[in-house]
Every structure is written in C-alpha cells, then in structure tokens.
Design goal:
With 53 residues, the protein is an all-beta fold. Helix content is 0%, strand content 55%. It has one domain: Ribosomal protein L33 (Rubrerythrin, domain 2). The protein has a four-stranded antiparallel β-sheet with strand order 2-1-4-3, with no helix packed on it. The two termini are 23 Å apart.
Length: 53
C-alpha cells in the first residue's frame, strides 16, 4: 500500500527510439514526464532519454 504512488516507467532514447532503461517515478511529486541524459548502447553515446507511455 505504501508504494501506490511510485510507478514503473520505461525510458526511450530520443535518437534511435530504443527502450533502454526501466526506472520508478513518484507521480505525486513529479506528475510530468521525466527526461534524463543517459548512455544509449545502440547509439554508443549519451543521449536524452524520455519517459514513454
């Protein structure tokens, strides 16, 4: 019951559109979609990863 606010989200590379990372997001504190700069192994560089649906 305590983890009802935290939701599992998938991060997608903005360049190649590959789904690379899974993480948790607190929808109560962060209702917007998250964007993180992370390493993409398919592009072989650091790119912006956005939260997918």
């Amino acid at each position: 019951m305590a983890n009802d606010v935290r939701v599992r989200v998938t991060l997608v590379c903005s360049d190649c559109k590959q789904r690379n990372y899974d993480t948790n997001n607190n929808k109560k504190n962060d209702p917007d979609r998250i964007e993180l700069k992370k390493y993409c192994r398919f592009c072989r560089k650091h790119t912006v990863h956005k939260e997918s649906k």
